[in-house]
Structure formats: C-alpha cells, structure tokens
Design brief:
The protein is of the alpha/beta class and 179 residues long. It has one domain: 3-Layer(aba) Sandwich (Rossmann fold), CATH 3.40.50.2020. The chain has three helices and ten strands. The chain has helices spanning 18-35, 51-58, 110-121, and strands spanning 4-7, 10-16, 42-47, 66-76, 79-88, 98-106, 126-134, 147-151, 157-158, 174-177. The strands form two sheets. A six-stranded mixed sheet has the order 5-4-3-6-7-8. It has a four-stranded antiparallel sheet with strand order 1-2-10-9. A hairpin with a 2-residue loop joins β1 (4-7) and β2. It is globular.
C-alpha cells in the first residue's frame, strides 16, 4: 500500500485502507441481512463505480436475492455535472419488488434522486439505498440513505471502484486528492 500515488495529472494520499473498507462492508451486509430476513430483494448496482463494493457486499449477503446492474453518469473530471443520464437500462420486471440500490458513494445526491424517481415509476414495493461512502457535507437532497458504510468529508477520492476520468478504479485502497 502506497501513501502517495499519482493518477493522471493529480496526486492522491492514502485515505481509507482496504481493511477499513472491508469492515464497513461487513457492517452494511449485517444490517441488510437482519432487516430483510425472509425477503427476496433485487440488488441494483450502479456502474461503473459500485462494482467493487457490490462484489464484496454480495459475498456477505445471506438472503435469497438477485443482482442486476444499471449505468448512470453525472461526473466529469473532479466535479459533478448535475445532469444525470441513464446509459444502460434495467431489463428485469421490478414491479412489486424490494430494491436495494448499491452505490459506491453518495455526495450531492443528484444521481440517486434520479434513480429513485425512475424506480418509483416502475411501481416497486420498496426502495432502500446502500452506499459504501456518504458525504453529508455535500448532500443537498432530502431522501433517506438506509445503509452507510462510512461518512467522509467532501474531498475528491479515487480507488476501490472510484475514478478520476476513468482511471484509478483498480486501486485496492481509497485515496484523497492532494490540493
């Protein structure tokens, strides 16, 4: 594990080790397993960033469940664009289902709000949100986030699925930008 890394033209310092990430994932999985015992939820993973979190989370879920993936986009560089586009849609019939949206990070909440709206239009039974990381200082929306692995400051981060212009997703640990 390196303390300082370079991704493209920016430097980042170690922020969250994989061991801390794994502990947070176990906490989220335990809460979901307890809350949804006896149910058959559909985990809806938002790509690209949440793929690593989803893989590790899913290994710790003891429920009869399914998993599917959607792709949304709202980031350009290090700033959110505030415009959410659905890039890859949902093929399953989800009417009457309990959905757990799996996201790597919730910051402003704009992307998630768009996802919630699209799911409600499909007449789901219940929507729950599981995120590895939550930035309360950046959050500008009013919905509840059911499962939060860790609350973090409003720093730009990379690693463990999170990227900087498509790079750095493969890092095992999470790094924050050095200004």
């Amino acid at each position: 594990m390196k303390n300082i890394i370079k991704v493209r033209d920016k430097e980042f310092s170690l922020f969250i080790s994989f061991e801390e990430i794994d502990t947070a994932i176990t906490k989220v999985a335990n809460e979901i397993n307890n809350d949804l015992k006896g149910q058959t939820p559909l985990f809806l993973v938002i790509l690209n960033g949440a793929f690593m979190f989803a893989a590790d989370l899913f290994k710790k879920i003891d429920l009869d469940c399914e998993i599917s993936f959607v792709k949304l986009a709202s980031y350009t560089g290090t700033q959110t664009s505030s415009i959410v586009k659905e890039l890859l849609g949902l093929s399953e019939d989800i009417k009457g289902r309990t959905i757990i949206i799996v996201e790597d990070i919730v910051d402003t909440g704009i992307t998630m709000e768009s996802m919630i709206k699209q799911l409600k239009e499909k007449e789901v039974k219940e929507i729950r949100i599981a995120t590895l990381l939550f930035k309360p200082d950046a959050f500008i929306k009013k919905y509840n986030i059911d499962y939060v692995g860790m609350k973090i400051p409003n720093d730009f981060i990379v690693g463990y699925g999170l990227d900087y212009n498509g790079h750095g997703r493969n890092l095992k640990d999470i790094y924050k930008i050095i200004e």
